[in-house]
Amino acid sequence: MAVAENWKEKSSELDYRHQAFINNDYVDAASGATFDCVSPVDGQVLTQVASCDAEDIDRAVRAARAAFESGAWADLAVAKRKRVLLKFADLISDHADELALLETLDMGKPISSSRGGDIPGVAGSVRWFAEAIDKIYDEIGPSDGKGLGLITREPLGVVGAVVPWNFPLLMAAWKFAPALAAGNSIIIKPAEQSPLTALRVAELAAEAGLPAGVFNVVPGFGETAGQALGRHMDVNALAFTGSTEVGKLFLKYSGESNMKMVSLECGGKSPNIIMEDTEDLDVAAREAAMGIFYNSGQVCVAASRLLVHENIRESFLEKVAEFGATMEPGDPLDNATQQGSMVDENQMNRVLQYIDKGKSEGAKLAMGGSQVRQNSGGYYIEPTIFDQVSNDMTIAQEEIFGPVLSTITFKDPEEALKIANDTIYGLRANVWTSNVNTAHKMAKALKAGTVNINTTDGGDITMPFGGFKQSGFGRDNSLHAIDKYCQLKSTYIRIT
Widest CA span of the chain, in angstroms? Predict the structure, then answer.
């Protein structure tokens, strides 16, 4: 408890950045409007944040365009651009405690996750792409011998990034790090539920030496600021992480405006397939619990559908429940807490409605299912497990984005594959087996952008991340992420 009190003491010292950051300056929304930034930890208002709209987006786009056309960043030698980004990464690391505390207070995730995972991941993303930019070469095309074909990469120009509330700064970094490395100017529209870390890190970007107009953050609501960014005629690309429903809107906005490039990382309903020959069921059960209850289930790749071979279902589900019971929600400012709060009251109520839907459709509530910690003033739901779920139930088909696990049994690998692929989503899938042939066959047949074998949390920044089907398209992480922030130019020189 002493540790929790220490974080609480630090929280009293925070200075919340609450204005938009445009052209290296904090500014109020043009309308003067603000909205309450409420902490889901205890339901208290942290600050009032600028509620930006189309006028503010236009102001940010003009600043970003001017910076890009000036060449102050886009034409900077890659060695110098690299040094600035490395300094930016160092500043993020230097302010890790502050940023982690902002993230926890703003979004409700455990401080151990913010400080131990998210913020180091942000610094790591910036550092990785900084190190990558002087190792990417242009190409010479094979010609007929009468000329020279040059293939060069050029930055797109102005990139908009609309990012979610579940990993507020990390998902932003997955966009802005490669976009900046490629030489673009960027405008971030953070989720209205969690804008504080993006607003603070913008100041660090300026301190690192990013020229005015290159890094902008415009808070506001999706239907105002987000839509304005998606429809703007002078934005060259829009990168989005969030729901499939909203992702489709950005495709519409692109078509109705300037046909800007759009990349989408949308919803998921990831299957976690436990074969009968799984070698270590204790490990598999622990990861099954972490795969759905981590971050209160507010994870796009959450292993929300547990597919278990019928011969081991009962014993395996008992193990999952045992691990799940150790992840009861607690004070997010306590280092021992493994599960924090839902992001806000609306999301909590949405998840509770799904739990009621599961019960009404005939699924068996095997564990949890209720709101807890009501006296805290925050928004907490206990780990919840449904058994006897069929894949056509609502809780098995729709993305709940909460700590709710649906358990489905299967008889053989063919049935497991059929169930796993029977979804509109295709972001991630997990398979547990000790048979290498089964692993390869399942990995090839699963319709998902990432397939994990014997883990629910595989891969790192070197691996591309994105989805199939209505989970979207385009890839974050790896060198492939830089591709979506560049355009290719072919230059042919005739030799005489």
Answer: 82
Establish whether 486 is a catalytic residue. no
Q: What is the rounded CA–CA span in Å between residue 470 and residue 448?
A: 10
pLDDT in tens, 76-111: 999 999 999 999 999 999 999 999 999 999 999 999
CATH number at residue 322: 3.40.309.10
Answer whether 358's CB lies under 8 Å from 406's CB: yes
Q: Does residue 265 have an active-site annotation?
A: yes
Query: If you search the block for the tokens 């002493």, which residue do you land on?
Result: 2
Report the interhelical angle of 78-94 vs 168-181 (nearest 10°).
160
- If DSSP codes are grouped into helix, strand and coil, which group holds residue 371? strand
Q: How far is Cα 426 from Cα 271, in angstroms, rounded to an integer? A: 10
In contact, 84 and 210? CB cutoff 8 Å: yes
How far from chain centre, in Å, is Cα 125?
13
Query: 240 pLDDT exceeds 90?
Result: yes
* Helix H or strand E segment including 150: strand 147-155
The domain in which residue 433 lies consists of: 271-462
- Asked whether residue 2 carries a pLDDT value surpassing 70, the answer given is no
Q: Are residues 248 and 385 in the same domain?
A: no
- What pTM was estimated for this model as a whole? 0.96
Residues 215 and 284 reside in one and the same domain: no
As for how many domains the chain has, the answer is 2
Token pair 């990558």 in the structure block, residue: 132
- C-alpha distances out from residue 63 to 109, 234, 333, Å: 34, 11, 38
Single out the catalytic residue among 52, 300, 382, 486. 300
Residues 116 and 49 in one domain: yes
* Cβ within 8 Å of residue 268, ≥6 positions away: 300, 301, 302, 304, 399, 425, 426, 427, 428, 467, 471
Give the residue carrying structure tokens 């830089």: 482
* 275 shares a domain with 198: no
Q: Which residue has the tokens 């042939």?
A: 437
Q: pLDDT tens-digit profile of 406-456? A: 999 999 999 999 999 999 999 999 999 999 999 999 999 999 999 999 999
> Among the options 103, 192, 265, 382, which is catalytic?
265
Residue 101 shares a structural domain with residue 210: yes
Structure tokens given for 430: 């997990």
**Which phi and psi angles does 44 have, rounded to 5°?**
-90, 150
How many whole angstroms separate alpha carbon 476 and alpha carbon 243?
Answer: 16
Q: 390 with 280, same domain?
A: yes
In Å, what is the CA distance from 129 to each residue of 78, 251, 463, 475, 482?
12, 27, 13, 14, 8
Average pLDDT of the segment spanning 311-327: 97
Q: Is residue 378 part of a domain?
A: yes
Indicate if 57 and 173 belong to the same structural domain: yes
Q: What 3-state class would DSSP assign to 274?
A: strand
